[in-house]
Amino acid sequence: MQRAVSIRLQLLILLGGCDGFPDRSSDFACDVDADCDAGRRCDRRYCVVGPPVDCADPLPCAGTIIAVVCGDACWTSCTEELTGTAAYDRCQAWDARLAPLRTADDAACFTMVRPPGADVWTGLVQDVAATQPNARWSWNGDSRPLDFTAWNELDIEPDDRDLQEDGDEQCALSNPDELWSDQACTEEHAFTCRR
Ligand SMILES: [Ca+2]
Ligand SMILES: [Ca+2]
Questions:
Q1: Which residues, chain by chain, have CB under 5 Å from ion ligand 2?
Q2: Which one of 98, 133, 182, 191 is most buried, by most CB atoms within 10 A?
Q3: What pLDDT, on the 0 to 100 scale, is given for residue 134?
Q4: pTM, to two decimals
Q5: CATH number of the structural domain 65-194
Q6: Is the peptide bond before 158 cis (omega within 30 degrees of 0)?
């Protein structure tokens, strides 16, 4: 406990001398959960409310798992190669979603766990009612417009294979260079879940 207090004091001093740094000193109170008031937990040295986020129970995976707590979620990749549909089901059965990359922060978390050099399914899917390759994409079918995208525009993705939208490619993956392309959901690739 003495060490915790010492570290806290040092960090408070650092914060106090840093112009423009938001004053969160009142929340800046912990090394471990026991340092926080009842109902709060210690998350990266801040006492916060909400359920604990951890990756303690591993995603069922016949390959290699890469997992990290990033932002407010557990991001987990699995190198077992599944169809897009099976990958979605695997994440959902683990109380998670196939990786939604709604923001640059999400993409940064995804980068931390994506299997190097692999094509990786994300949760990006296209509505069957789309009439253009680039239309009606959403994260796991939630119908919300995409604010953040990273399509491989040099390769004219999404292209539904031949630039004619007829349902050939309704799922999307992240290439090793972290750009997105639409692919047939029946292809088998590694995948990433977020929960
Ligand atoms: Ca399509
Ligand atoms: Ca494509």
A1: 159, 169, 181-182
A2: 191
A3: 97
A4: 0.75
A5: 3.10.100.10
A6: yes
Measured between alpha carbons, how far apart are the two ends of the chain, in Å?
32
Between strands 188-194 and 120-126, the pairing is parallel
Ligand 1 geometric centre to CA of 140 (Å): 14
The first and second tokens of residue 15, run together, are 């914060």
Q: CA 10 to CA 20: how far, in whole Å?
A: 18
With DSSP H G I counted as helix, E B as strand and the rest as coil, what are the percentages for the chain, rounded to 5? 20, 25, 50
Q: How many residues appear in the chain?
A: 195
Q: Which two tokens stand for residue 92?
A: 């959902």
Q: How far apart are CA 78 and CA 114, in angstroms?
A: 9
**pLDDT in the model for residue 35:** 83
Collapsing DSSP to helix, strand or coil, 128 comes out as: coil
Q: Find the mean pLDDT for residues 18-44.
A: 60
Please check whether residue 191 is in contact with residue 79, taking contact to mean a CB–CB distance below 8 angstroms. no
Longest dimension (CA), the chain: 66
| Per-domain boundaries in the chain | 2-48, 65-194
* 47 close to 27: Cβ distance less than 8 angstroms: yes
- Residue 44 CA to chain centroid, in angstroms? 18
Give the integer Cα–Cα distance in Å for 188 and 195: 22
Span from the CA of 133 to the centroid of ligand 2 (angstroms): 9
Has residue 94 got a pLDDT over 90? Answer: yes
